[in-house]
């Protein structure tokens, strides 16, 4: 396709997404399932963080996702800002069988809102719904909490590959909406470098290397 104008249809968006949450809740499993359709029954603790990419096409708009899967162990907590800084979206994961892990999500919400305000799309994810018999976090409580902090709530099973595509697709749509709103807010939109509050990278046509791009984010869900 020829390069579309700034108001044209052929754009590609680069978004950075970070996964946060207690150890063992299934962050790595969600990312591996989403990017490589793999699942491992064993828990291999993530050290510091790991990085995967995914390309999507949403209604003709190309999206390059840079996904940062962080370490849940408490000793890595202080590294959080390195990964959530400049993120367009954050996926805060808890294990539905583990109440403490839900508490930890609340702590992340507080930290992210304090550090980034509303400029990040928040997703709260109850993972391991295949273990519903052992559920220790009430659905209503979790959904109510998410709503109260302007986040969206999702249920997933990395094991059974449930809810994951929907989660990422929905998040991408929200991030696109936010980027577009930023563009409009910036006025004519003829300057692709200056589109977003915090520099969402919107590139006409040819995608560049999928380097992480910083950017502003959500005001709505
Ligand atoms: N039953 C079930 N087990 C899951 C699911 N997702 C992950 N697990 C298991 O939970 C354990 C932890 O998964 P990980 O993805 O390594 O967890 P993590 O959040 O990345 O952990 P850290 O890297 O230590 O922060 C592994 O044994 C997975 O197989 C799920 O949806 N259902
Ligand atoms: Mg991990």
TrEMBL record:
One Pfam annotation reads Ras
Provide one Gene Ontology biological process annotation: Rab protein signal transduction
Q: Which UniProt keywords apply?
A: GTP-binding, Lipoprotein, Membrane, Nucleotide-binding, Prenylation, Protein transport, Transport
Q: Where in the cell is it found?
A: Cleavage furrow; Endoplasmic reticulum membrane
Query: Where are the annotated segments for Disordered?
Result: 183-203
Q: Name one GO cellular component term.
A: endoplasmic reticulum membrane
Gene3D superfamilies per the record? Answer: P-loop containing nucleotide triphosphate hydrolases
Which GO molecular function terms does the record list?
GTP binding; GTPase activity
- UniProt membrane topology term: Lipid-anchor
What InterPro entries has UniProt attached to this entry? P-loop_NTPase (IPR027417), Rab21 (IPR041833), Small_GTP-bd (IPR005225), Small_GTPase (IPR001806)
Q: SUPFAM superfamilies attached here?
A: P-loop containing nucleoside triphosphate hydrolases
Regarding protein family, the annotation reads: Belongs to the small GTPase superfamily. Rab family.
Q: Which NCBIfam families match?
A: small_GTP
The name this protein goes by in its record: Ras-related protein Rab-21
């Amino acid at each position: 396709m020829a390069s579309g104008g700034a108001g044209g249809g052929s754009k590609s968006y680069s978004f950075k997404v970070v996964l946060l949450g207690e150890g063992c809740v299934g962050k790595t499993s969600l990312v591996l399932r989403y990017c490589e359709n793999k699942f491992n029954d064993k828990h291999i603790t993530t050290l510091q963080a790991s990085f995967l990419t995914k390309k999507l096409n949403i209604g003709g708009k190309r999206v390059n996702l840079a996904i940062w899967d962080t370490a849940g162990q408490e000793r890595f907590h202080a590294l959080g800002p390195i990964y959530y800084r400049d993120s367009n979206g954050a996926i805060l994961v808890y294990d539905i069988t583990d109440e403490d892990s839900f508490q930890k999500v609340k702590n992340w919400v507080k930290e992210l809102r304090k550090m980034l305000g509303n400029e990040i799309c928040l997703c709260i994810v109850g993972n391991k719904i295949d273990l519903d018999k052992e559920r220790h976090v009430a659905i209503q409580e979790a959904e109510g909490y998410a709503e109260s902090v302007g986040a969206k709530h999702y249920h997933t099973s990395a094991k059974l590959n449930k809810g994951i595509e929907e989660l990422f697709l929905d998040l991408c749509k929200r991030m696109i909406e936010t980027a577009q709103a930023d563009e409009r807010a910036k006025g004519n939109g003829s300057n692709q470098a200056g589109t977003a509050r915090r520099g969402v990278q919107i590139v006409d046509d040819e995608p560049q290397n999928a380097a992480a791009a910083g950017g502003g984010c959500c005001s709505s869900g």
